[in-house]
Write a structure and sequence with these properties.
This protein has two helices and two strands. By secondary structure, the chain is mostly helical.
Length: 72
């Protein structure tokens, strides 16, 4: 019962996020189907954040170009 509630809350949150994205897209004149890409976008952002966190913890670090210079 408890895990099904987590799934339900996650589904409701995802649908609400998609609805907000749809309203913003409509106001900006974007196509309606872009709202369906919002969960994929969030999954990618989370994956990038986790990879960055893991690289930082392992000491390997990540290279990124910030402000025209390469930092480690």
């Amino acid at each position: 019962m408890g895990s099904s509630m987590f799934i339900l809350y996650g589904l409701i949150g995802t649908l609400l996020g998609m609805a907000v994205k749809r309203v913003a897209d409509h106001a900006g004149g974007q196509p309606w189907w872009l709202a369906f890409l919002q969960p994929v976008s969030m999954a990618c952002v989370i994956a990038i954040g986790l990879a960055s966190w893991q690289a930082g913890r392992s000491g390997k670090g990540m290279y990124g170009k910030v402000g025209g210079t390469v930092e480690r």
